[in-house]
């Protein structure tokens, strides 16, 4: 199976917007109730039976089983029969909300994520239709179960032969969007190693350094708009809680956050396509992004969005038939790519790589990208020395490339 997600902006009527808002609120309540049920069960078993705190722990019978997705779906069926507001929402939408909570607990157990949190008013911003009827796309409108036809701006054509498996309605500061998941009954093979190879090294001073000597600047969208964001947040803090003026001020903050995210994502896509134009193999570092985000440069790391960029680069490589691989990131900036000896650079302020052993000199980030390229080639079975064969060629490392 091969899946793609297409995103379009909806043009709902006022009645449809009211339905969307109501459904989001009901999904939030179902999510919070199910989370409370699970949390109470865990708390009732968090201490010894002879030392249980009656003030902060709930007494639940010992034979009560742990709440699961299946048991909570059965409870949802009973609740929908007694609560009209829940019955007005399509049942599969509420079940997907429970599945979302189940995934949050699985991520906590398997990936070390935190305990799921309750969602306050307005925090739930999407709901999913896991099944759509036949021919859900009718002209420039999508037919959603229990809602009907909702117009949308079809910015690009939907490919023929694809089956629309599900639809996710998303609320953003700029409006409502629908994300259609398209599925084809075919298997697309992963691109094989071929063609020219490049390695990349992500950073803060330069967003990406390429092994051929090119440097791409860091757009820093958050840093450039931080003062404006700070001003808008101050205006929100001065407004009375619950007032319409406060809601309007919060909407401006949300739109600015969305603008920052769009600038960053657009730059990532443009850069990914630019890199795919140059090579048949792209190698990148496998970074511990969680640890980097918690360091003293965490604000700059999060502003750069390396995790999103590497995901986009991998998607772009798959789409364009370019081989992509992540390599070991240890000591990439400490090793000389020419003689493979450790140089022992200790300060981040030391931005020039100069090897005392062989005399090779270049930008520090470019040298790290060349080491990444060598490691990637070794991982796919190539053991050639790139510099000795003149593979690392390009413009001087001090010149920055442009995406224009």
Strand order of the largest sheet: 2-6-7-1-5-4-3
How many discrete domains?
A: 2
Distance between the termini: 36 Å
Low-pLDDT ranges: 383-388, 393-399
Alpha-beta classification: alpha+beta
Mean pLDDT: 87
- Estimated helix fraction: 40-55%
What about the largest sheet?
7 strands, antiparallel
Globally, the shape reads globular
Count of DSSP H/I helices:
10
Query: What is the C-alpha radius of gyration, as a whole number of Å?
Result: 26 Å
Oligomer: single chain
Count the strands? 14
Give the secondary structure arrangement, pairings included.
Layout: E1 2-10, H1 14-43, H2 69-82, H3 84-87, H4 91-111, E2 126-129, E3 137-138, E4 141-144, E5 148-153, E6 163-172, E7 175-184, E8 197-202, E9 206-210, E10 215-217, H5 221-238, H6 244-276, E11 281-285, H7 289-293, H8 298-304, H9 306-320, E12 323-327, E13 352-354, E14 361-363, H10 364-379
Parallel strand pairs: 8-11, 11-12
Antiparallel strand pairs: 1-5, 1-7, 2-6, 3-4, 4-5, 6-7, 8-9, 9-10, 13-14
Task: Explain briefly what this protein structure is.
The chain folds into two domains: about 180 residues, no CATH class; about 180 residues, no CATH class. The protein is built from ten helices and 14 strands. Strands 2-6-7-1-5-4-3 form a seven-stranded antiparallel sheet. The protein has a five-stranded mixed sheet with strand order 10-9-8-11-12.
